[in-house]
Amino acid sequence: MIDQIEFCDVLILNKCDLVSEQELEQLENVLRKLQPRAKFIRSVKGNVKPQEILHTGLFNFEEASGSAGWIQELTAGHAEHTPETEEYGISSFVYKRRLPFHSTRFYRWLDQMPKNMVRAKGIVWCASHHNLALLMSQAGPSVTIEPVSYWVAALPKLEQEQVKQQEPEILEEWDPEFGDRLTQLVFIGTDLDEETITKELDQCLLTEYEFDSDWSLFEDPFKWKLNQ
């Protein structure tokens, strides 16, 4: 459901007669945080004018692919924040670090994410799979983390150069030591405690001692079957 909301251009809120105006506004603002560019239509008993949803010409695949709230947060940051969402306690922030997570500590943190987290998504760097970029996605009680690609820095030198030529924007985030490896997560929720969440995540990062250790000896909590 969350994925559908993030990809849509029109959102119909039905049975609006069954909730108060304040509840409806709060719901709209949560949804607007998830999908800032959608057209909102309120309805009662599913009564919607056909011209509101058919042949509107609103849908554009390329724009829809990048219009989700978490993507807007990554690319535009606070510029995408609206007073309406902040008024209802709906907030978001980006967590970005250049050190890898200790996989077990991060895995445990995912299992006890704050209940007021509506949406979280982004790329993760974990020490036990240091060559793989991992995608973490949370929507309500559902949390997944899985590999999506190799880090460019983990590729053979020739392939690295080819990717850099084809996608020069990679160089904007390129680190001399770690390459493109990093963790970048967007969190969206109600009354989020950014300071506490950030502190908890920082405690999941490798310590200096762990960083200098053999990462292959770390426990791996993920049960993926990977083709090497």
From TrEMBL:
Residues 90-205 form the CobW C-terminal domain. Keywords: Chaperone, Hydrolase, Nucleotide-binding. Belongs to the SIMIBI class G3E GTPase family. ZNG1 subfamily. It comes from Bacillus subtilis. GO terms for molecular function: hydrolase activity; nucleotide binding. The keyword Cell membrane does not apply. InterPro entries: CobW-likC_sf (IPR036627), CobW-like_C (IPR011629), CobW/HypB/UreG_nucleotide-bd (IPR003495), P-loop_NTPase (IPR027417), Zn_Chap_cDPG_Synth (IPR051927). This is Metallochaperone with NTPase activity. It comes from the Bacteria. It catalyses: GTP + H2O = GDP + phosphate + H(+). SUPFAM superfamilies: Hypothetical protein YjiA, C-terminal domain, P-loop containing nucleoside triphosphate hydrolases.
